[in-house]
């Protein structure tokens, strides 16, 4: 068994580094040749790096959010014995000049008497401009490039040296670089609140019948969470109010009413909030909704869903306070959708039945809708229909 | 395909093969003369080149190649066009025609040496009748026309296939070549792989009107076809090559397809195109479509499909193994080695200086 370290290649013609977005493997896990290892974001693109070798993951050398320089270790893999012979790294080409394993080393030229006076500074025009913009005197910067040339990295390093502008910590602040899912959520949420005038309505529903149906299902061997019932009820209510399943087309001043009901399911994962999409939910029976949504949620948590299973939603369901004291909240629409439905936890509550206060299972529902498309009256009708569906569930 | 529209002209040699929408008709299909084995071979070749293309991208992501330009989604054009030609016919490709070269018999690992920095021209063009890949846009088009005129001067019956993308049609070189070919009736087939994007520039910002229609202005027929239909591409190239061979001059085929991948491994298409556009084209995938048709005809069964997938997998692994085992040539040889047959003195001095500036190798 031999350990081999895979170093970050230059993934895009002249890049110097990349930011690690997410690992797709864990230490101790097994990989084959071409098993996806991780996603990295370069200055040019987000790309998936497949494993060059088969074996066991020995060590992951970087954490999500960290920047890795081209040529630095990314992952160490213990080669599978059978694959050991062919797994010997050959000459890697994608590392640019000067990387440790390029196989060609430049002979040190006559000592780089770098930048002795500002009149003799060696730097490319854009680096000079950068230094000027940052108010740096290039004569004070040591060049690390060929022949003592000052590179962009040298200027940036000099600019962020303690005297200038510390970027990682100042007076107890900590800076967290935003990448991957966090960045995507930020963009989507900003788009929602800055482009969609949205309002929220609340209701409480009686979940007795839903719980009875669940009990009956459990007795006949199919346990189900409340989620499939919620989705089925939303689909039925949407059929009665198709405008809730629509998009506002900014460019043409039109409302696009969607035929299939593709239900986005907000899932809290270790990476952040993901929204896998249950397609054509209007064509699915309750058990199919249960099976497919369970697979989607599992896939979202494992990070194995392809992008096309996390896009194309027409309405989203989410939950608030699945356990604990929180009852409900104001969900934010997932653009370009028109409506998001949030379900609270089902628990015993005092309800008035035939003039008497009795304890019954119930939960809060809140919906946020796009006011460009839907007015309060229609939202109320939709929410009423949704409550009606949930309260008429039969086992 | 509703988005493929063409103008059928009276002198269009392909008039009888295609519907006005650019689709191969049942009548056209029956005239192809392909037996079951030949039909399966087209499928096999598409699967082989797609798998090799994916492996090349993997190799780039693993630092084994400096750059890679995928042709994912364009397999029907690669396979249909080469199958329609004689092996003596010449091909002058752009940089995305790896699949065409592979079907012509060029070893895929040899081809990749160009993207690994090991060679400048990895095969002998005269052996495969396949010119080197042209990286600058449209430079190969005038070469193809000149070579085609040369074929005629030699009284050979070879014809030349000139392939390029939609972006190339905006280049001056392209116009000059088209004009020359029209005036002198060069035995050349112009095949445009209109994949919708010139890097990040969509066709709508690149070309007004239709590319196929431009042929009329140069005095020869142009046709727009469904580039994701391997049999349609085969039929069109076959008919155009026959016409050229008979001395009737060139033809422009605009094969409408879609670049499912990035422009190259350095590009991120999610920055400029939508998921829904990709999904729409995914539904027209040339391999899935052709396989469905073969299954419907009873020409292929599951066992054959699985065997072809296995063969493609092994071929991809063999390509990886052969490529990564190749020795790196000494840098001096790689750069200076094949420039002059009798190198002049200053050139030799330059080589020496270069080599002495390196340590180890």
Silhouette of chain A: elongated
Class derived from helix and strand content of chain B: alpha/beta
Major sheet details of chain A: 7 strands, mixed
Query: What is the CATH fold-level name of chain B?
Result: Rossmann fold
Oligomer kind: heterodimer
Question: What is the H/E order of chain A?
Answer: EEEEEEEEEHHEEHEHHEEEEEEHEEEEH
Which architecture of chain B would the CATH scheme give at its second level?
Answer: 3-Layer(aba) Sandwich
Q: How many separate domains make up the residues of chain B?
A: 1
Percent helix of chain B: 40-55%
* The CATH homologous superfamily of chain B: Thiamin diphosphate (ThDP)-binding fold, Pyr/PP domains
Radius of gyration of chain A: 28 Å
Task: Indicate the mean pLDDT of chain A.
Answer: 84
User: What is the helix/strand order of chain B?
Assistant: HHHEHHHHEHEEEHEHEHHHHHE
Shape of chain B: globular
CATH class of chain B: Alpha Beta
Task: Compile the SSE list and pairings.
The complex is a heterodimer of chains A (395) and B (361).
Chain A: E1 3-7, E2 17-23, E3 30-31, E4 36-41, E5 46-50, E6 55-60, E7 67-69, E8 73-79, E9 105-106, H1 125-134, H2 152-159, E10 169-170, E11 173-174, H3 180-195, E12 198-206, H4 208-219, H5 226-240, E13 246-249, E14 254-257, E15 263-265, E16 267-269, E17 272-274, E18 277-278, H6 286-302, E19 315-319, E20 339-343, E21 347-353, E22 356-370, H7 376-391
Parallel strand pairs in A: 15-19, 19-20
Antiparallel strand pairs in A: 1-8, 2-4, 2-7, 3-6, 4-5, 6-8, 10-11, 12-22, 13-14, 15-18, 16-17, 20-22, 21-22
Chain B: H1 26-30, H2 36-61, H3 75-84, E1 90-92, H4 98-104, H5 108-112, H6 125-128, H7 140-153, E2 160-165, H8 172-184, E3 188-194, E4 197-198, E5 201-202, H9 214-218, E6 222-226, H10 230-245, E7 251-256, H11 275-282, H12 286-297, H13 302-324, H14 331-336, H15 345-356, E8 358-359
Helix pairs in contact in B: 2-3, 2-4, 2-12, 2-13, 3-4, 3-10, 7-8
């Amino acid at each position: 068994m031999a350990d081999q370290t895979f170093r970050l290649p230059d993934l895009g013609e002249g890049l110097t580094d990349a930011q690690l977005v997410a690992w797709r493997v864990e230490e101790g896990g097994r990989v084959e040749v071409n098993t996806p290892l991780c996603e990295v974001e370069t200055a040019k693109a987000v790309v998936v790096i497949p494993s060059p070798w088969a074996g066991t993951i020995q060590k992951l050398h970087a954490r999500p959010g960290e920047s890795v320089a081209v040529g630095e270790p990314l992952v160490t893999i213990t080669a599978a014995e059978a694959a050991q012979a062919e797994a010997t790294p050959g000459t890697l080409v994608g590392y640019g000049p000067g990387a440790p394993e390029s196989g060609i080393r430049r002979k040190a030229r006559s000592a780089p008497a770098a930048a002795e006076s500002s009149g003799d500074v060696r730097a490319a025009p854009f680096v000079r401009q950068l230094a000027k913009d940052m108010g740096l005197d290039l004569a004070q910067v040591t060049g690390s490039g060929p022949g003592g040339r000052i590179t962009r990295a040298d200027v940036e390093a000099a600019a962020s040296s303690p005297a200038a502008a510390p970027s990682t910590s100042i007076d107890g602040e900590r800076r967290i670089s935003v990448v991957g899912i966090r960045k995507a959520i930020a963009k989507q949420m900003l788009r929602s609140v800055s482009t969609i005038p949205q309002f929220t309505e609340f209701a409480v529903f009686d979940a007795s019948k839903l719980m009875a149906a669940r009990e009956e299902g459990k007795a006949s061997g199919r346990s189900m969470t409340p989620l499939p019932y919620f989705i089925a009820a939303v689909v039925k209510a949407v059929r009665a109010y198709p405008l809730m399943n629509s998009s506002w087309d900014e460019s043409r001043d039109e409302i696009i009413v969607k035929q299939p009901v593709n239900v986005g399911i907000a899932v809290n994962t270790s990476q952040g909030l993901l929204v896998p999409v249950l397609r054509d939910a209007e064509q699915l029976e309750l058990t199919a909704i249960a099976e497919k949504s369970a697979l989607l949620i599992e896939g979202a948590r494992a990070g194995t869903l392809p992008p096309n299973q996390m896009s194309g939603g027409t309405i989203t369901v989410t939950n608030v306070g699945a356990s604990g004291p929180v009852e409900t909240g104001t969900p934010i629409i997932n653009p370009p959708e028109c409506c998001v439905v949030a379900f609270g936890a089902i628990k015993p509550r005092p309800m008035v039945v035939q003039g008497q206060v009795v304890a019954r299972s119930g939960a809060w529902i809140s919906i946020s809708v796009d006011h460009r498309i839907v007015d309060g009256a229609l939202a109320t009708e939709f929410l009423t229909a949704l409550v009606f569906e949930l309260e008429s569930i039969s086992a | 395909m509703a988005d493929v529209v063409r103008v059928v002209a009276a002198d269009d040699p392909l008039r009888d093969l295609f519907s006005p929408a650019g689709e191969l008709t049942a009548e056209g299909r029956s005239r192809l003369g392909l037996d079951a084995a030949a039909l399966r071979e087209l499928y096999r070749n598409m699967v082989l080149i797609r798998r090799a293309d994916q492996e090349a991208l993997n190799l780039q992501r693993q630092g084994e190649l400096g750059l890679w330009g995928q042709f994912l989604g364009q397999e029907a054009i690669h396979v249909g066009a080469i199958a329609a030609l004689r092996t003596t016919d010449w091909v002058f490709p752009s940089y995305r025609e790896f699949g065409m070269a592979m079907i012509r018999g060029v070893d895929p690992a040899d081809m990749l040496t160009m993207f690994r920095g090991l060679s400048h021209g990895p095969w002998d063009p005269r052996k495969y009748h396949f010119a080197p890949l042209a990286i600058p846009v449209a430079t190969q088009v005038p070469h193809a026309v000149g070579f085609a005129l040369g074929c005629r001067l030699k009284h050979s019956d070879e014809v030349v296939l000139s392939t390029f993308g939609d972006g190339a049609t905006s280049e001056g070189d392209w116009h000059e070549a088209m004009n020359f070919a029209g005036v002198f009736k060069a035995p050349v087939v112009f095949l445009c792989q209109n994949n919708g994007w010139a890097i990040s520039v969509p066709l709508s910002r690149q070309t007004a009107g239709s590319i196929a229609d431009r042929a009329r202005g140069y005095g020869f027929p142009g046709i727009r076809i469904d580039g994701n239909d391997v049999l349609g591409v085969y039929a069109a190239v076959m008919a155009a090559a026959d016409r050229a061979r008979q001395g009737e001059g060139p033809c422009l085929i605009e094969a409408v397809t879609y670049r499912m991948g990035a422009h190259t491994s350095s590009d991120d298409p999610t920055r400029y195109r939508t998921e829904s556009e990709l999904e729409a084209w995914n539904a027209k995938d040339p391999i899935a479509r052709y396989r469905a048709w073969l299954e419907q005809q009873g020409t292929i069964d599951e066992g054959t499909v699985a065997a072809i997938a296995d063969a493609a997998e092994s071929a991809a692994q063999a390509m990886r193994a052969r490529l990564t085992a190749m020795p790196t040539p000494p840098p001096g040889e790689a750069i200076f080695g094949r420039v002059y047959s009798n190198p002049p003195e200053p050139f030799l001095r330059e080589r020496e200086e270069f080599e002495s500036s390196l340590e180890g190798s």
